[in-house]
Amino acid sequence: MTGAYLALGSNLGDRLAHLQFAVDALAATDHVRVTAVSRVYETAPVGGPPQDAYLNAVVALETGLTPDALLALALRIEADAHRVRAERWSPRTLDVDILLYDDLQSADPVLTLPHPRMWERGFVLAPLRDVAPELLEAGRTWEGVHETAVTLTIPWRNDSAPSP
Fold first, then answer.
1. 49, 55, 90, 115: which could join 15 in a potential S-S bond, CB 3.0 to 4.6 Å?
2. What is the pTM for the complete model shown?
3. Between the CA atoms of 119, 72, 44 and 142, what dihedral angle is there, to the nearest 10 degrees?
């Protein structure tokens, strides 16, 4: 199993439900075990047309999927949440981005790893620090990123339970 981190974002419809849908879909997938989910943050949109604020979170997981298969899963989850790709950085029901896949580095334009802009985006870094504090300096804050009082849950699966 390989460790990976995925960023989740939503600013259309029931934003929290879309994020939870993504966590549930990941947890229900064979060869994927969700190990942690960050707190939920509300953030101002970055780039694109005028739009409402986002809810963002990061999911830590262990997977037996290849990076390409994990990307296909992320795109399928977005499609199942009725994501429409009208224009770059437009509002969306759900965005699922692979941030890190173990320590793999790839310049492939379809799947660049680590995610090419993750280190510039507070809406990714704040929740990433929740699940992987060793990757970021303690005490750092990001403008426009606000922790919410809502949380996501990791559904329990018999085959994903830790071994005794």
1. 55
2. 0.89
3. -20
